[in-house]
Structures are given as C-alpha cells and as structure tokens.
Amino acid sequence: MALCHAVGLASTALIPAGHGGWIGYWSPGIGDPSPIGWVTVVCYFVAAVACLFTGRRVASTQATGEARFWWVVFAGLLVLGVNKQLDLQTAMTELGRILAAEQGWYEYRHKVQRAFILGIGLGAAAAVLVLLRLLRRTPVATHLSMLGTVALLAFVVVRASSMHHVDLIIRSSLWGIRGNWVIEIGGILVVLMGACLRLYQLRRASGKPRPALVEAER
Fold it and tell me: Three-state DSSP class for 205?
C-alpha cells in the first residue's frame, strides 16, 4: 500500500493542474488508431520477427558480428512498433516541459531540445559508422537491411526534432500519400526484404552438399 501511495504521489507531481494526463497532456493509449497506423505497427512486428529468425540462422554459421546486427535491429523494430501507438516521445517531451517549468529553465528549453536532438543525431551517425565497419564483408542482403535501418534512424531523428518546417515537409501528401508514410513504411519494408533475402540465401547454402561430400560421392 505504501508503495502504491508513493507511486500515486509521484505520478500526481508530474501532472500540471488542468492537463488531465499521466504526464502533462500525455496518457497511455492508442496514439494512431487509423488503418495506416495499424498497418505500420504490423509491418514493424513482421519485420522484427524476420530479423529475429535471420539472426538465429546467421548465428548458427558462427557469424557473430552479423548475428548481433540482426538482433539489434529486431529489438529496435520491436520498440518502434510499440512506440508507434504509445507515442512515448510525446511523454518525454511533456516530462521535459514540466521539469523545465518546475526548475526554472523553461525559457531555455529550446536550447536543451536542440542539444538533445544533436545528441540523438550524433548517436545515430556513430551507429551507422559502426554498422558500416561491422558489416563491410557481409552479403548484399544484409547491406539492404542496413540501408532500411539507416532510413528509419533518420526518420526517428527528424520526428524527434519537432521542427515546424520539417514536420510540414514529411507530413505533406501527394495523391493522398503522406511523406512520413513513405519514409517509415518504406524503411521497414527494405529491412524486411533484406532479412527475407538473407534467410533465403542461408537456407539455400545449408541445402547444398559440402565439397568434401561431393568428392566422396564421385
């Protein structure tokens, strides 16, 4: 009971009067109940499962560096799929705004936001460089999934920037198709294509007889 009471007090402290959410205006719920929102979530989870199976198959070939890549992408897709509906970045934004107001640096919040976004961007760039180094000798299928992963990283950084003119660009539509749909779903599908192609290659390779066995049969 004491623990529940403490949690209740902590959550109440995060809610400014009149906002009504768990953290400011944010409360857990379905963030994008539209058909395209659910399609995106399904794409995330399907691609995540494909990466998981690919990672397990690659690990059986002793290619541990490549296997780690697939497992990291699996975890990242899983998190992004959950976040697609929970909208956790809004919770973080609201929490930052509340802390800024309570601690007296609200007027400097844009500088903090820019520093935070810069940190995300540098982290994403470093991740890309590490991927390029680790996967330089891997098959084209793995490079394809890496390309899709980079596209998703860029999308996450752009959305996190919350810049008005950037939002206008990615939310613009052509023939009813919005730019953010193309970037996000396109990146997921590229990752999925690479994972499926890599699985196909591994299954074909495992089905071929070894050279020593071929020589023995002759």
Answer: helix
User: Which of 153, 154, 76, 160 is CA-nearest to residue 115?
Assistant: 160
| Coil/strand/helix, residue 173 | strand
CA distance 48 to 192: 8
Most confident of 29-33, 119-123, 156-160, 175-179: 119-123
Q: Any idea where the domains of the chain sit in the sequence?
A: 33-104+114-207
Sole residue written with tokens 């991927």: 131
Q: Contact, 111 vs 147, CB < 8 A?
A: no
Residue 142 pLDDT more than 90?
Answer: yes
3-state secondary structure at position 1: coil
- Is the per-residue pLDDT at 105 higher than 80? no
Q: Which amino acid is at 154?
A: A
pTM score of the predicted model: 0.71
Encode pLDDT of 179-210 as tens digits. 677 888 999 999 999 999 999 999 888 776 54
First to last CA, the chain: 77
Instruction: Transcribe 42-63 into DSSP letters.
Output: HHHHHHHHHHHHHHHHHHTTT-
Q: Cα 88 to chain center, whole Å?
A: 12
Q: For residue 91, give the amino acid letter.
A: A
